[in-house]
What does this fold into?
Amino acid sequence: MTIKVVRGNPTPEELAAALAVVRARAAAAALPSGAPTVPDAWSDPSRIAARRVPQPGPASWSRTYWPGA
It folds into this structure.
């Protein structure tokens, strides 16, 4: 792949950024459209709901953030 600057005087950082965008677009176009995607584990709502909510009480505020406390 050849990239030619036809106008302006870009800095090396600007050229690197432009090349990164072009390569990312080319890589995305090369992927098959029906490829299954695996969601990230941190965005899975079931990991939050897997633990029980602490019961209300005088010290429940201290158990609301730290798991297993």
Notes: The chain has two helices and no strands. The radius of gyration is 24 Å.
